[in-house]
Amino acid sequence: MNSAAAIAVILVVWQILSSTGIVPDFLLPSPVDVARAFVNDFPLLMMHLKVTLLESVLGLVIGIATGFAMAVLMDYFEPFYKAFYPVVVITQTVPAIAVAPLLVLWLGYDMAPKVTLIVIVTFFPMTVGLLEGFRAADGDTMNLLKAMGADRIQIFRHVKLPGAMDRFFASLKISASYSVVGAVIAEWLGGYSGLGVYMTRVRKSYAFDKMFAVIFLISAISLLLMSAVEILQKRMMPWRTKD
Amino acid sequence: MQKLAAVQVTKSFEGKTVIKDISIELNEKEIVCLLGVSGVGKTTLFNVIAGLSVPDSGNVMLNGADITGKAGHISYMLQKDLLLPYRTIEENVALPLIIKGMKKGKAIKKALPYFKDFDLEGTEKKYPHQLSGGMRQRAALLRTYMFSEGAALLDEPFSALDTITKSMIHKWYLGVMEKINLSTIFITHDIDEAILLSDRIYLLTGRPGRITKEIVIREKKPRRDDFNLTESFLNYKKEIISHLGM
Fold this sequence. Notes:
The complex is a heterodimer. Helices cover 84% and strands 0% of the residues of chain A. By secondary structure, chain A is mostly helical. The longest helix of chain A has 35 residues, at 42-76. The mean pLDDT of chain A is 90. Chain B has two domains: 2-74 and 149-244, P-loop containing nucleotide triphosphate hydrolases (Rossmann fold); 84-147, no CATH class. In chain B, the strands form two sheets. In chain B, strands 6-7-8-3-9-10 form a six-stranded mixed sheet, with helices on both faces. A four-stranded antiparallel sheet of chain B has the order 2-1-4-5, with helices on one face. Chain B is an alpha/beta fold. Chain B starts with a strand and ends with a helix. Classes of the chains: A mainly alpha, B alpha/beta.
């Protein structure tokens, strides 16, 4: 509630700054102008949004799957962990914005480079989050299950995997927001459609009202994705919501 | 009739012998206690009996069969209840059966009738954090029972509970043991608890740890409420204290 009030105050101040002419229109369009641009361009925005959203979700799903597979392998085989963990860390020191043009050159102007970039930026938080979760499993509990005659797969299913859920969802929230940003960045560097493409076009024509409209749309989508993750988390972790 | 036995068990870690030539036995429906100061190798012996570690020499026998170094036969319970926080009580209790390959629904069905004996009615669908410490220990004990082939190890199961809860759970424990078919070895460093619950007490002393004395508690069961205030109780206590050199 308080944050809604804070946002309202910011919008009001912004509107006053614009309509009194303290900040000129061509530098900063007023919130009303932005809203008007949003409404006027709505069908076009939705068309681009569909593409971006598809890329994000696709990239995120593949990123989660990759992260999960990496984490399981690293947890299961110590040599694999020792060999690949540093490599995984190195992939993250390379800035996404530097890789994106290469991906476009290699994979063309369609969805492939966008999805690939999203996979690169999202699999890392998933791998690290899950791996830490697996490794934090309680030794006494695992011993107890061993005494019950459980094998490694059963221990994974009953102790490690459910125990890692907290970290899984924390990572998923990060990855979900990365996925939208990743898609937009990849679209900047080449493509036929998507919010990033739209953004590049309106920037080139100095249509700042449309620019702000698409920025707000992107934040809204990120927030929506994150709250979808939260809803999913509540459903998958029912023990958290009981007093 | 003999249920479980450790025969001449020796175990060392990094060249240091922790326990030496330990032989203990547990008869049908008996409660036997291992009493000793910390660091005497009680938990080492425990891991050997549970099949979690292999002894240097010696054997573990269950119902006459050799189970040395084999897990999956002897259930145990620790001071920490180790209930899985993300599973309901009925799922937790049924876990040993699920591990043995039973379908979840069937396993829960098999566990449910025992909820009454263990005073856990109404907790079936709850999660562990919604239960009190005493209730959680009872649920852990029921889980131990579900997985036992008639014998269980309890490693300081009640030491984390406060005094009042503890004395209540002692009474409850003796009561429930009358109803179910379980033989238990439990480890404690609480002398009163040992005398109160046990049929026999093994005293573990020295380095490496050995069984240096066996005391039979002759008070019949069910034990009267004021057993811990009687002369004979105090005599047992004196005997133990002088042997442990406290």
